[in-house]
Amino acid sequence: MKLAETKKMDLVVVSPTAVPPVCRIMNYGKYKYSMEKKEKESKKKQKVINVKEIRMTPNIEDHDLGVKAKNASKFLQDGDRVKVVVRFRGRELGHTDVGRKVLLQFAKMTEDYSSIDKYPMIEGKNMTMFLVPKK
Question: N or C: less crowded end of the chain, CB within 10 Å?
């Protein structure tokens, strides 16, 4: 501590859990500023990935499916993930194979821009599938 005072610098504990604790003589204000600068720089390089959701029913018409596929293509081109959900009501739960066909047809319609991240899985009354943008 005396050494740090004579150099008019700070004594900073680098690794407090080590035996003996590791300390360093440095200008703490300058060190803190450089760490904040590095953190800001790393945040700039990160890309936020949003998840967009598209809902439909198992007995959706072809044209409606095409419109939803077109919207999903826009989301995928923007770099977002797409969660495609088919909702089953009442007796439709007995025909989950129809929902799976709809989801796979949807994936085929958007295959120019996407690849399947998670294949269709049933969760309660919904069947979900995740699409990720192609690189």
Answer: C
| Residue range(s) in the chain whose domain bears CATH number 3.30.110.10 | 51-133
Q: Which two tokens stand for residue 39?
A: 């953190």
Write the DSSP assignment of 75-112 as a string of letters.
Answer: HHHTT-EEEEEEE--GGGGGGHHHHHHHHHHHHHHTTT
User: Whole-prediction pTM value?
Assistant: 0.64
The CATH class given to the 51-133 domain equals alpha beta
pLDDT tens profile 38-71: 999 888 887 778 899 999 999 999 999 999 999 9
Nearest to 106 by CA among 119, 95, 96: 119
